[in-house]
Amino acid sequence: MPYLLSLDAGTTSLKAVLFDTEGRQVASHLEEYELFKPSPDIVELDPQVYWQSATASIRAVIEASRVAAGDIVAIGVTSQGETLTVVDGHGEPLRPSIVWLDNRSREEAEAMDREFSPNDVYRVTGQPEMIPTWTATRILWLRRNEPEVFRRAHKYLMVEDYLIHRLTGRYATDRALCPSTLYYDLTTGQWWPEMLGYLGIDEAQLPALKDSAEIAGEVSEEAARQTGLRRGTVVTTAPIDQVAGAVGAGNLEPGVITETTGAALAICATLDEPAYDPQRRIGLYAHAVRGRYVLLPWIPTAGMVLRWFRDELGGGMDYNRLAEEARAVAAGSDGLIVLPHLSGAGSPEPDPRVKGVFWGLTLGHHRGHFVRAIMESIAYVLRSNLLALEDLGMEIREVRSLGGAARSDLWLQIKADVCRKDLLVMACDEAASLGVAMLASVAAGVHADLEAAKQAMVAVRTRTPFDPSAAAGYDACYRRYADLYRHIKGLFE
Q: Cβ(225)–Cβ(427) under 8 Å?
């Protein structure tokens, strides 16, 4: 029986998942890693950690599944976006990867904002604001601050590209991974010459562009030795992890919204043609389905806020015990409001200067209040972005919830009540991994196209309906949250 292996390199962990051709999860393995954060604006990781995590995860999955390596017909790879890895002519990293959460390149972003019209940048790349998150600003930072690295740079890669290279020896990337680099032209499907010229780099320093579900290469002899895979196994491209999750949730056509609450919060709304927000609040990306697009509002820190609270202030408790304490707290957290912007604000009002806030504290608040207020804050941000999408004329027929938060009944109910939307949870709780496997199945010829893969591999597990009475109470809480943000955001300028 043929099997499909997916790799998903996230912000704080890498996951390998093995699926059969009907979307059943056979085995999985997660490797966590700690980001290097020596100062508030610096976030890095040794690129070797991504590869070491990948090899450990692949070997663990093969061992746990007892599936013969020869029965794995294709491996798909996705990753976080924006994180920059620079390698020399031998493929060796020249410095630590600059993780997408890093904000060191503020001055470079400001310089680029002066050089390029914001409307032109939005039209070409789909990115509404010039912020230090975008990969191009990091390359300019390297040129200004690490000229020797800039001089020796052979390739500028995303995490997915780096893993594909380690697996195959080839440099390839997915078009639907690249819009937020800010040097990819969404309208032509090619690299943006004007931005490359400004940065002082050329196309030869970038990987080959592929569509989603294309073959990037085959597992090399060295990679086979390190991973336990069969040499020659097909390796395929996949879109940015959030769009891969949309594919895994069956979000292939307009009207369906997927929201993923993992480390970040990302929302995917599928479009038949490009749509731009006149207020430039929401980014536009390529869909894995050729010729379709995705409006993708996102928030840098979502589930990461809860992880931070667990690790720093949670008293050693796990997520389940923290959630039980939060469940005992009334909706609205007795007036405690969280602004969850621990690494700058994202959609619908992007601003890297904004910081996190816990507001309204009293002696009557305890740990459960903090946990529930964090959960509610992400629901408020989700609501503000759904309202922004509806303002653009989008019909939201259905919201499908993904990510770690979709495993929490409490968090699902809070989101449903705050947003006044029923939430659907998929049968496979690893939607991004499933989406990657679906794309790999198409590339390997297991399924004829994505629609066929969807019919064979995607199913809904549960529906969480919103409670009208609870929703009415949350309307007032949301207004307080929005008022607080409006009044306080100017303090960070």
A: no
Sorted by sequence, the CB contacts under 8 Å of residue 441 that are 6+ apart come out as 4, 21, 74, 447, 453, 457
Q: Is the pLDDT of residue 493 over 80?
A: no
Dist CA 103 CA 345 (whole Å): 12
Residue range 154-163: average pLDDT?
A: 98
Q: What is the pLDDT of residues 249-260, one digit of tens each?
A: 999 999 889 998
Name the residue with tokens 């604001």.
129
The dihedral formed by the CA atoms of 111, 80, 398 and 348, expressed in degrees to the nearest 10? -20
Instruction: Answer for the pair 195, 182: CB distance below 8 angstroms, yes or no.
Output: yes
- Token code pair at residue 360: 């309204």
pTM for the full model? 0.84
Rounded distance, CA 184 to CA 124, Å? Answer: 8
Q: What residues have CB less than 8 Å from 55, skipping those under 6 apart? A: 226, 227
CATH for the 241-426+459-493 domain, from 3.30.420.40, 1.20.140.10, 3.40.50.300, 3.30.450.20: 3.30.420.40
Record the tokens describing residue 335, joined without a space. 């007036």
Radius of gyration of the chain (CA): 21
Which pair of tokens denotes residue 363? 């002696």
CATH topology of domain 3-238: Nucleotidyltransferase; domain 5 (3.30.420)
Q: What is the pLDDT of residues 438-486, one digit of tens each?
A: 999 999 999 999 999 999 999 999 999 999 999 999 999 999 999 999 9
Answer yes or no: are the C-beta atoms of 19 and 26 closer than 8 Å.
yes
- 272-328 pLDDT per residue, tens: 888 898 988 888 999 999 899 999 998 989 999 999 999 999 888 889 999 999 999
* Token pair in block for residue 68: 């013969």
Amino acid identity of 388? A
Domain extent listing, the chain? 3-238, 241-426+459-493
Query: What integer pLDDT is reported at residue 288 of this predicted model?
Result: 94
